[in-house]
Amino acid sequence: MAAANRRTVVVLETGTPVIMPWLDEVAGVLEAWYPGTRGGEAIARVLFGEVNPSGRLPISFPTGVQDLVRPDIPGLIFGPPVEGKTLPTTRPDIQQHKGRFSVDHTEGADVGYRRYDRLGLKPLFPFGFGLSYTNFTYDGLSLSGGETVTANFVVTNSGQRAGIETAQVYARVAGGLRLIGWSKISLKAGESRRVSVTADPRLLAGYDISAPGWRIAAGMVDIRVGPDAERCALSGSVLLEAALIAP
To answer: What distance in Å separates the CA atoms of residue 30 and residue 45, rounded to the nearest whole number?
Structure first.
């Protein structure tokens, strides 16, 4: 269809990300997930402009299966395990016994956008991504630290119609990127609003099993604000105080 008409829009009804080798051949993609019995009506209202879309991706979409934590699953078979049967695998994080497989999650918490950031990989669509029939700009960032982080900034609807923006605040903690807060703002065309986002302190901490509790390390933390995990509209640094939060 795209070969016949490049103004084709692809509607996806999926429960997970999919790869899109055809993306450059179409005009747009609408991810509808599993929309339910009135999904057709909802999708049509978005496509015909009756509703300005404001959804954001809850997961990153990879450019290809090679960017997944496990591009293949050795021994993925249907039916009960066969006694004594083993399948070849060279993956040190995957072991098998009597046809059953166990997987060591050595990546820890570095999954999704955090893994893409740590490895310097670029997703097809990042966590938090979403387009609209209008545009938004950010400015006026001010940060306060101490026991947690509070980010204040201005979001402006710079387009021609009303819309909703989800402004996201990320911090770089222990060398990794973390979403620490967000704010969903409904703005008329041309309208601006100052937004304040305060992080739950535990999102800035690491869990210390010896304490036990959530431990925040003292020091400077880099903060960035934007529409998703990839795009940075505003950035700055703030000083955190050391703290231990009871579990």
So the answer is: 12
